[in-house]
Automatic annotation (TrEMBL), chain A:
UniProt-recorded Gene Ontology molecular function terms: ubiquitin protein ligase binding
Gene3D superfamilies assigned to the protein according to its UniProt record, in alphabetical order: Cullin Repeats (1.20.1310.10), Cullin, Chain C, Domain 2 (3.30.230.130), Winged helix-like DNA-binding domain superfamily/Winged helix DNA-binding domain (1.10.10.10)
Cullin family profile domain: residues covered: 464-662
Keyword Cell division tagged: yes
GO BP, sorted A to Z: cell division; metaphase/anaphase transition of mitotic cell cycle; protein K11-linked ubiquitination; ubiquitin-dependent protein catabolic process
The protein, known as: Anaphase-promoting complex subunit 2
Family classification: Belongs to the cullin family.
UniProt keyword terms in alphabetical order: Cell cycle, Cell division, Mitosis, Ubl conjugation pathway
UniProtKB/TrEMBL annotation, chain B:
EC class: transferase
Name assigned to this protein: E2 ubiquitin-conjugating enzyme
Family assignment from sequence similarity: Belongs to the ubiquitin-conjugating enzyme family.
Active-site residues, record numbering mapped to chain: C86 (glycyl thioester intermediate)
Domain UBA positions: 150-189
Key words of the record: ATP-binding, Nucleotide-binding, Transferase, Ubl conjugation pathway
Molecular functions (GO terms): ATP binding; ubiquitin conjugating enzyme activity
EC number assigned by the record: 2.3.2.23
Keyword Nucleotide-binding: yes
Lineage, opening ranks: Eukaryota, Viridiplantae, Chlorophyta, Chloropicophyceae, Chloropicales
Superkingdom in the source lineage: Eukaryota
CDD domains: UBCc_UBE2K (cd23800)
Limits of the UBC core domain: 1-148
UniProtKB/TrEMBL annotation, chain C:
RING-type domain residues: 45-98
UniProt keyword annotations, A-Z: Cell cycle, Cell division, Metal-binding, Mitosis, Ubl conjugation pathway, Zinc, Zinc-finger
Protein name: Anaphase-promoting complex subunit 11
SMART domains tied to this protein: RING
Regions crossing the membrane: none
Signal peptide region: none
GO molecular function: cullin family protein binding; ubiquitin protein ligase activity; zinc ion binding
Source species: Chloropicon primus
SUPFAM superfamilies: RING/U-box
Amino acid sequence: MVGKVVMDVDPSSSIEPSMEAAKGLEVGERVLVDFERGFKARMVDDGAWRGLGSSDTADEKKRSQVLVETLERVEEVRSGHTEQLRASASAGLSPACGKPSASNAAELQFWLDKIEREARSIVYSVVVVSAPASLSDCVAQFYRQAFREYIDTSEETSSMEVEGPSEQGGDQKGRIEALMGGEWCDRLSFVGQTLNKLGLSHQSENIYTDIVFDHLENWLEERAAGEYTEACLLAAQKYNQGVIMGFLELLLESTSHGFGSEESKNDVVGQWKSRLDFFIYEILGRMRTEEMFDIVVDFPESMQALKDLKVCLEHTNFTDLFIQKFSSQLKKRLLHLGAGTPVILAQYISSIKALNILDPSGILSEIICPLVKDYLKKRKDTTRCTVNMVVYDENLLLVNGGEEEDEGAEGRFHEGGAQSTEDLEDVDLVLKELQWEPVPIQAAQLFNSASVRNTFKTASKDIVAALIDVLGNKEYFIKEYKMILAERLLSKVDDDIDDETRILELLKLRFGANSLRDCEIMLKDMADSKRITSNIRALVQQSQGHSAITQDFSTVILSELFWPPLFEGEVSTPKEVQWMLDTFGSQYKALKAPRTLHWKPHLGVVDLELDFGGEAKEFTVSVAQALIISQFESRVAWESEELAAAAGMAHESLAEKASIWVNSGILKKSVDKGTKKVTYKLVEDVEDQVEKPHAHTKPDLSVMSQEQQMEMNMKVYESYVMGMVTNLESLPLEKIHNMLKMFVLEPVYDKTIQELEAFLAKLVNDNKLTFDGIVYRKKKR
Amino acid sequence: MDLSRVQKEIREISQDKASGISVRVLGEDLTRLEGTLKGPKDTVYEGGIFVVDIEIKGVYPFEPPKMRFKSKIWHPNVSSQNGAICLDILKDQWSPALTIKTALLSLQALLCSPEPNDPQDAVVAKQYLNDMPLFEQTARHWTRTYASETASQKNLKQLLEMGFSEEDASTALDNAGGDLNTALAALLG
Amino acid sequence: MMMDTTTTARTTEAEAAAPPRAFKVKVKHWRTLASWSWNAGDDVCGICRNPFDGCSPEAKYPGDDSPVVWGTCRHAFHLQCITQWLSSQTEQRCPICRQNWEFKSAMETDE
C-alpha cells in the first residue's frame, strides 16, 4: 500500500522538502506516552525497574534524565509535525508540497508512517547511546522474575496439561491467563511492547533467551545428569513445547505488536521452538557425551540415555567432540594398569554395543574401538580372558552372526531357491540394509580407507567377531580355547561334559567343525575314558572278587596327539594307586591290544579331605600337591629336600607345588638363616588359620599354556637372536625375522613375525634385550 | 586326493635344503606342482637345474604322481622330444610309501645311472651304448643349453628361498645391478 | 581309599618327631592321567603320513576309528590305508618292503 503511494508521487521533486519537514520527528504518540506515564512509572513503581529513575550513581541518573528529556523533545517535534501534516491534509492539500492533491488521505498516511519510522530510529539511537547501563539488568531482572513466577506456578499446578494440544498458541494464551491471571499477562505484554517500541526488542530477546536457556539447562541438569535409565529428551521437548513455549508465545506476541497473521505467528513460534529444541539437543548431547563412559558402564540399563544421545548427535555436529571426549575418557578411566583385563574386555564389549546403538553403521565403534583393541593387544592375558569371556562368562556364542561361516552355512544360503516366508523376511532385511544412510561427514573423513570399510561392518556388529579381532585371528582364539578346555577337563574329578559339549557345538557353528576337531576328540576321550573305566572296573570285580578298582579311582585316557602338551614330571605313586594303575593297565591291554596305556602318574587330580582331629576340610589338588601334604601324616616337619624325595618329585618344583598349602595356612615355610635350608611345618592351630579352604586351591595344571609352549618352541632361537644383537648392535624386528629365516636351518625357523615379536618382548622382559620401539639391542650389564 | 598328505610332503621338501630338490605349487589346488632337481656331481648333468612337471591325481598316493621333464635333457630313459620318463617306480613299481620327494630323488639317481637297456628314447640309448664320448658331449651341451641357471636366476632363487616375495626380490636385484649381497642388504633394510 | 604313605616316606623316620596329634589325609577321589598308543613306533603311517596315534585320512577320531594293523613283514599301516592300497593292486605286497602282504594276527602282534 505504501509502495503504491510512493509510485504516485514524483520522487525527485516531492520528497526532499518533506524529508526536511519530517526530520527529527515523531515518536508515535503512544511511544512517549507509554514511556513516560506507563512504562517508566509502572516499572519503577513495581520495583522491578530500578535503573531509570532510581539509579545510584550520579552519572546513571544524569543519563536517565538526558534520555527522558531527549525523548520528550523528540516527541514534541514529532507531534508538531504530525499536527501540521494533518492540518494541511484536512485542508485538502498535499502534505508534501502544499498543493491540492486528489489522493491526500493516502499521501497523509504515507507521510505519517514515514515520520513515525524516522522518529523511531531516532529514539532507538538515543536509547542505545544514552540508556543507562543498568537498563538491561532491569529488563533481565523483570523477565527473570516473571519467568520464575510462571514456572513456579506451572509446577505447582503440575496437574496442568503439559502435554496438551498447545501447538497453536490460541488456547496457550488462554491457559496462561487462567494460570497467571490477567494482570500478570498484561504486564508481561506491556513490557514486551514497550521495549519493542524503544527499539530494544533485539536486546530484550537476548535477555529472555538467556533466561529461558539457563532454565532449560538447569532443568535438564536436574533431571538427566547421572540418570541413564529414563528417556529425557522427549520429556524435555514436551516441557519445552508445553511450558516454555507458552511463556515465549505470550512474549513474542507482545514484542511484535501482534503477529501480522496466523501464518507469520506460526513461523515465529515454530522458529523459536526449533531453536529451543536444538538447544536441548546441544545441552543433552554435551551432557551425555561427558557421561559416555558411565553410560557404557551401566549398559544396557542406560539404553534410554543412549537413545537420547543418538538423537542429539543426529541433530548436532558433536560427532567429532563425542569421539574425542569418549576416547579420552576411555584412556583416562579404563586403559591403565589398574584395570584388569576382564574389566577392559567387558567395557570393550559394552562400548561396541553402545556405540552401535549410537551409530548403527558401525563407524563410530570402528573409529573408537582400535584404541581399546590396541591396548588389549599389549596385555598378556588378553587371549585367555577373551576366550573365557566369550565361551564361559557371557553367553556371547548364542548371539547370531559370525563372519566365519563355514562352507555349510554358505551352502544353505545359496540353495534356498524357493520363496518361503522366511525368504520373504530375508528380503525385508535386505531392503532394510539397502536403506542407505550417509556416513557422518566428520567421521567419514577419519574413515575412508576402503579396506577398513570392508571389514568394519562385520567386526563391529558381531561382538564375538570384534573380540576375535582383538586377538588377531580365530586361530589364536581356538588355540586358547583348546588350552582352557583341556585345563578344565583335566582339573576335575567328575565326568560331566554336557556343558562343554554344548559349548563346543556352538563354537562349531561359528568356526566350522574342522577347526575344532582336536577339542571334539578331547571330549570324546573324556566320554570314552568314563566308559572304559567302568568296563574295567566291572571286569576286575568279576575276576578278582575282593581286591577291586574302587569307585574313588578313575582314569582319563588321552589321545595325546590332540591335547595340548602336558607337563613332564615324576612322583612316587602310593602303592594302592600303583596297584590300580597296573591292574587297570593290563585290563586295558586285554581290551584294546595292541594298544597300551602310558601312565602319567604325576598328572591328575585328587579330592582330599584333611582332618585336623576336628573339622575336616576338603581340597581338590594335583597329584603332587596331594602327595606333599600326605607326608605330614607321619611327621609334622619336613626339610624341603627330604620332602621332595619323600614325594618322589624334583626338588626344584617342590616350592611351587607346596605353595598351595602354605597359602592355605596349613603349612608354614621357614628358611634357616645359616644353612638356607627350607623347612615346611604343619601349622599347630590349623583350624583358625584355614580361612578359605578353597581359596588358592586350584590344582596346578597338567597342560602347558600357550605362552609356555611358545617359550619352549622359541628357546632354541634365543642364542641366535642374542648373537645377532651382539654382533650387529641394534636390529629391527623384520631384520631379525629375515635373518633367522635365512640362517637358522636346524631346527628350521618357521615362526611368524608376531610369534617372534612376542618372544622378543619376553627377552626384553627378562632383561636380556632392550627395545626402543624401533630396534632391539642387547641389554648392557 | 589326500590333501593333507600332499601338503605335508611339500612342507617337508621345502624344509630339506640339502637334497638339491625343490617343489612349488602351480595354480590354486595341489594337483599341479613343479619340481626341480640338481644334476648330480661328476655326471654329464652336473651344473644343470632340471625342471620336472608333476601332476597329482585324485587317487594319489595309491597311484604315482605323473612326472615329466620340462627341461630338455639328453638321457636314455627320458624322451628327448617331450621329457617323458621311463622309471619303474613312476609306473608299476609305485608304492604309496613313496613320496614326491623320493620320486624326485629317484630321478636324480636315474641321472647318475642311466638304464640304456630299458630306454625311453631309443636314439639316445643307442648313442649311449655305441658312442659314449658323443653321448657325453651331447648331454653336457644340452645341460648347458637347456638346464643351466644364469647367475641372475640363481641369485633370484636364493632370495626367494630366504622368503622374500618374487616381486621384492627381483626389484631389489635389478636395483643392485644383479649383485646378491647388495640386494640382500636392501631387502633387509 | 586310604593311602599308605609309608612306602614312600620313611627315609628319615628316625629323626622325625611323631605326629603330636591326629592329622589325617583322606583321599576321596584319585584321578590319574594316561595316554594310549598303538606302539607302532612314533612314526607315521607309510601311506597317509599321519601319525599312527592320529587319525587315518577318512576317520574322524583316532584309536578305535583308526585302527592300525601289521603285516607279517612287521610293517604297520592304518587299516583303512592298507586296505585301500591292497584293493587297488592285483599283487598283495607291502608298500614299504614289497614282500607279500599278510595280516599279522592279533595274537602275534601282542608279543
